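Narrative of accomplishments. A recurring question from our advisory board has been how the design workflow behaves on a single, concrete structure rather than in aggregate. To address it, we present the structure tokens for one chain from the evaluation set, followed by the sequence designed for it. No filtering or post-editing was applied between the two.
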């Protein structure tokens, strides 16, 4: 018998001082049975870090959509879709391979990958030279402590406050606080 996804609801208040974006976002997230709590929270953090992009990239004529994630490989975890249904921004979390990232770059204007696991350093050493030619790809690491700290923040209904200043994100709720300083391992060139 197949297991169903668990649904999480989050109200995410974003104050992005760096980008001048201040808004509340109501998120519905489906957590695949094989997905970890830290991966789900990495998707929330990726959303918060990019919440300003519909205005910046699409002049407000685009929306973010959560993908089917682990249940449908080859699709983004989060995508910014404009009114023509073009994928303007493809966001994945985890440790993708070079072929999947190249395919994402062929389907979207921009691709961002957020690595969050403690094994990411080893993964990146093996991947870095293989993705240098992918001009659309940007890769960030969410930090050594992210996975263990993020799990404590998860609950079925969340009220989260995200403050972004000087490139750092502070995510807080009544469950605790998470500090994230994304490290850029590969900047996008386009």
């Amino acid at each position: 018998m197949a297991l169903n996804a668990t649904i999480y609801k989050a109200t995410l208040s974003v104050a992005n001082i760096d980008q001048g974006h201040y808004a509340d976002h109501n998120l519905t997230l489906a957590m695949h049975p094989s997905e970890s709590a830290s991966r789900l929270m990495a998707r929330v953090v990726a959303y918060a870090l990019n919440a300003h992009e519909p205005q910046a990239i699409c002049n407000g004529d685009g929306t973010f959509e959560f993908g089917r994630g682990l249940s449908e490989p080859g699709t983004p975890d989060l995508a910014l879709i404009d009114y023509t249904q073009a994928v303007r921004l493809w966001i994945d979390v985890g440790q993708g391979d070079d072929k999947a990232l190249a395919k994402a770059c062929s389907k979207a204007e921009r691709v961002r990958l957020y690595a969050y696991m403690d094994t990411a350093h080893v993964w990146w050493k093996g991947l870095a030279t293989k993705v240098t030619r992918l001009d659309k790809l940007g890769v960030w690491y969410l930090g050594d402590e992210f996975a263990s700290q993020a799990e404590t923040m998860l609950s079925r209904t969340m009220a989260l406050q995200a403050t972004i200043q000087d490139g750092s994100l502070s995510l807080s709720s009544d469950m605790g606080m998470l500090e994230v300083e994304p490290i850029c391992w590969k900047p996008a060139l386009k």
